[in-house]
Amino acid sequence: MKDILLFVMAGCPHCRLALQLQDQLFADHPEWRDIPLKIVDETREPAFADQFDYYYVPTYYVDGQKVHEGHAERADVEKVFRLAAGEPVKS
Fold first, then answer.
1. What is the separation, in whole angstroms, between the first and last Cα of the chain?
2. Beta strands in 1-91 (DSSP E)
3. Which of 4, 46, 66, 71 has the smallest number of CB atoms closer than 10 Å to its CB?
4. pTM, full prediction
């Protein structure tokens, strides 16, 4: 399993949607709850967030590689977790 790092911002509707989609995916794939996931609010940890190259939130990194930035649909979030779990990714 690879680590997931998620950058969000308080009050962001796209971030709220991504977190809701994660919860839905966890219900369908409970094993994904074991994937190490760090959620960083960029307004609370700006020095840490500034070390990463992204502009929009939510932004997902898997094992240090940016794999999604900006508004996310269910398929986008599922891809992140499949990559982290080492599972095949649907095109």
1. 20
2. 4-8, 37-41, 59-62, 65-69
3. 46
4. 0.94
The answer to whether the beta carbons of residues 62 and 2 sit under 8 Å apart is yes
Residue ranges of the domains in the chain?
4-85
User: How many CA atoms lie less than 13 Å away from 67 in the CB half-sphere?
Assistant: 22
One digit per residue, the tens of pLDDT, for the chain of length 91 reads: 999 999 999 999 999 999 999 999 999 999 999 999 999 999 999 999 999 999 999 999 999 999 999 999 999 999 999 999 999 887 6
Rounded Cα distance between 26 and 78, Å, is 10
CA dist 53 and 24 (Å) reads 28
**CA 23 to each of CA 3, 44, 46, 81, 90: distance values in angstroms, whole numbers, following the listed order:** 17, 23, 26, 12, 20
